[in-house]
Amino acid sequence: QESKLRQVQKMEAVGQLTGGIAHDFNNMLAVVLGGLELAKRQVEADPAAAQRHIDNATEGANRAAALTRQLLAFSREEALRSEPIEPVALVLGMSDLLDRTLGDTIEVDVHAPEDDSWLVRSDQHQLENAVLNLAVNARDAMEGRGKLTITTVGVTLAEGAVGTCQAGDYVALSVADTGCGMSPDLLERVFEPFFTTKPAGKGTGLGLSQVFAFVRQADGEVRLKSVVGEGTTVTLYLPRYVADAPATDEKAASAAPASF
Ligand code: ADP
């Protein structure tokens, strides 16, 4: 059922590709080509102006590269890795990246209960990507000013408590911002591939649908809470990693994976 959902999402994505993405991509290429053309003309008469045109071209190329990266991540067929990850360590490991992404005027706070030692079963690269996607959305919603709070906490869910999650232990990783928030109408649409309210070239509308696909594939859930004018909290419920029972005889002990 889940793979069907992903299939439907992909089909929709492909259907909208020609209209939306090709158009955005073309705009970015126009910026690159235009910038290079102007730079070529001015390189002798006005090197400083030429440099500015080259910088513009580089920015356009970087946007196009980011777009194709997102498209590739979205259509990836490889299986997710399923490895034990310490969620707090993962977020702290992203501190530099988050600071650079959010800028000086947005405060970043990471919270975790002191006794929180639960690991999650996930794919490190994909999880980092998801957190980064959420942080970029938070930044855009805060327009340069506000507070981003990332919290991880272990929760035990009953069957049916959170969407498709089975009963069991999860780590709830939430990314909260003090940004513009979303109306109920908007909230209903944000997981659609290519749905964006951002100007062409800035938003692809793939961020949240990618996060959604990744978390569902990892047997987790995504929950959104948002109040217009106050902010948004996105919570990822990820299954807790529980190590196999410790091996008792020597043979089993030496055959156990040495990852921890
Ligand atoms: P993109 O960021 O490229 O637009 P997403 O799928 O990540 O694509 O987000 C879709 C839309 O959801 C955004 O354009 C924005 O309108 C809304 N959105 C996402 N995250 C937030 C947030 N934290 N606060 C307010 N609006 C948000």
Quick overview:
The chain has 260 residues and is an alpha+beta fold. The protein is 49% helix and 20% strand.
Walk me through the structure:
It contains eight helices and seven strands, in the order H-H-E-H-H-E-E-H-E-E-H-H-E-E-H. Strands 1, 2, 3, 4, 5, 6 and 7 form a seven-stranded mixed sheet that branches. Strand 6 (221-227) and strand 7 form a beta hairpin. Helix 1 packs antiparallel against helix 7 and helix 4 runs parallel beside helix 5 (124-142). It has helices at 2-42, 47-75, 87-93, 95-102, 124-142, 184-189, 207-217, 250-255; strands at 83-85, 106-111, 119-122, 146-157, 168-177, 221-227, 231-241. It is 49% helix and 20% strand. The two termini are 34 Å apart. With 260 residues, the chain is an alpha+beta fold. The protein binds adenosine-5'-diphosphate. Adenosine-5'-diphosphate binds at residues 133, 137-138, 141, 177, 179-180, 182, 190, 195-198, 203-209, 232.
Topology, pairings included?
Elements: H1 2-42, H2 47-75, E1 83-85, H3 87-93, H4 95-102, E2 106-111, E3 119-122, H5 124-142, E4 146-157, E5 168-177, H6 184-189, H7 207-217, E6 221-227, E7 231-241, H8 250-255
Parallel strand pairs: 2-4
Antiparallel strand pairs: 1-3, 3-7, 4-5, 5-7, 6-7
Sheet with the most strands, sense and barrel status: 7 strands, mixed
Helix content bin: 40-55%
Shape: elongated
Cα separation of the termini: 34 Å
H/E element order: HHEHHEEHEEHHEEH
Helices, by number, come to 8
The fraction of residues in strands falls at 15-25%
Number of strands: 7
Protein name: histidine kinase
Domain Histidine kinase: 20-242
Organism: Sphingomonas psychrolutea
